[in-house]
What does this fold into?
Amino acid sequence: MSANTEHLRSLEPLLGTWKVEGPGTSGTVQYAWPDFDGWMLQHIRIVAGTQPTRGLELIGYDAETGTLRSRFFGSGGELLEYTYVLEGRVLTIYHGGTDSPAKFVGTFNDDFTVNTGAWSWPGGGYESTMTKQTEGSDVPE
It folds into this structure.
């Protein structure tokens, strides 16, 4: 196992398939280990309002910043960058770096099967709840 994978272990509570719901938002996300070392994958199928979002996110350890960084590749050609931090039961996903005002902050319940939180950015945001549907660690379907 690579050093990168060791850092990713902090995100293990995310592994599996999650139902995502919120006002005007629904879909699924699936976090999994790929069949190669050093990364975590997220497969996204979300509809917010009438806007579908489908894509793949690769999450890995960035030794230069000492953070878990990701790249999201969307079906509409978008390429976005995020930073993941899981401290205790609080998951924060920053759009860009940890100094970004655009972020998701959500809290897991005691057994890490529900995460309730909100995306926020200057001038907007929305609430969402993720509920674990399946455990898992394999490559997304």
Q: What stands out?
A: The chain has one helix and ten strands. Helices lie at 3-8.
